[in-house]
Write a structure and sequence with these properties.
Blueprint lengths: L17 E4 L4 E4 L7 H7 L21 H12 L3 H15 L19 H9 L16 H11 L5 H14 L1 H5 L4 H7 L3 H7 L10
Antiparallel strand pairs: 1-2
Bound molecules: zinc ion (ZN) (2 copies).
One zinc ion (ZN) binds next to loops.
Amino acid sequence: MSKKYACSVCLENCKTGCIYCEICQSWLHYSCQNIDKAESKDWTGTPLGYICIVCRSCDDGSFDFLMGTERLKKAAKLGLKMLKIAVNRETLFLKSQPVENTLHSDFSSHKQDHVANIFLNHYHANTKAALRSTGDGDCPFNAISTCLVGDESMSVELRFRCCVEMINNKNKILRHKLYPRLVLISPDYDKDYVDCTKPGSYSSV
Ligand SMILES: [Zn+2]
Ligand SMILES: [Zn+2]
């Protein structure tokens, strides 16, 4: 007899303790999704549906940050309230997605930006060197990614996490002692985190 609600991970029938994936449209056991009892409560009654581990991952099994950013972009089009709801869901996904990258330290063979180096020298920062990053609209994230991991591979993840962090910690960031200076560069906080949901687009964040 075929199992009507077979969990797509263990293939056993789903009777209790299960959650529905809105992408592959199948039921899965909480335990097969690494969701413990306390977390399962977070998922009941959330306005947006669940997305299973396979459906939110790249082929290599890592979290698909580009897809996550697209989800946020779609939500942002429906307004800030919907974006916040979407960020709540992504925050639950990120619980099992800690930042695990190894920090890069040897920049001696990196390409430098010679024009920027002239400015650095001019302002007496000649002990520093400006590294090159791709100016494709993702430049702030490309630059931070280069500083952290030595290349631009973390850029999409940074854009995604930036939006999530800015929404989840808005009050804390607005009260930060350096915020009055940040306003000079980034005058509209809400616009900045919405910009983070648009890959390849300029963000003053
Ligand atoms: Zn299962
Ligand atoms: Zn799925």
